[in-house]
Design a protein that fits this description.
By secondary structure, the protein is mostly helical. The chain has 4 helices and 2 strands; from the N terminus they run H-H-H-H-E-E. InterPro entries: FlgN-like (IPR007809).
Amino acid sequence: MSKSIEQLILALSKEYEIYKGYLELAKKKRDVIVEGNIKELEKITNDEQSIVVSMGKIDEIRTAIIGNILFEQKIDWVENITELASSIKDPERTEILSLKDKLGSILKKIKEVNDLNTKLLEQSLEYIEFNVNLLTNAEVKGNTYGSKADENELKHRPNIFDAKV
């Protein structure tokens, strides 16, 4: 096994571990959104940003390693890692393809959790907007008796806020 192929396997394994950690964080984020814990949500968002930086670094490393493999194997260009693996002998080819499948699977799970988190956040924002509208545009029918017994008269409730959010 060439050193570059060994490095590619290590890089793909590391990339999988990073995405696995991101998936756990995304699931935790879902729970925090449901609980409405804003402080924990901020912390998770910060953690996500550092993971995204790690993803970018490992992506650069993987790209450089693939460049080395292409140079060593005298290949001009490949479309994807599956095509690259076709030029590598077993058992490394099988290991690379297995890691590629694991990465594809975990990315699909991350997308599902992120889509759910997006919907939960949109619902929370709609709920907040609904409440703000309730507080700023509330009009009530009179339900008390005045000195002239004008209970059906429309009365305006004073707004809590001066402007709509």
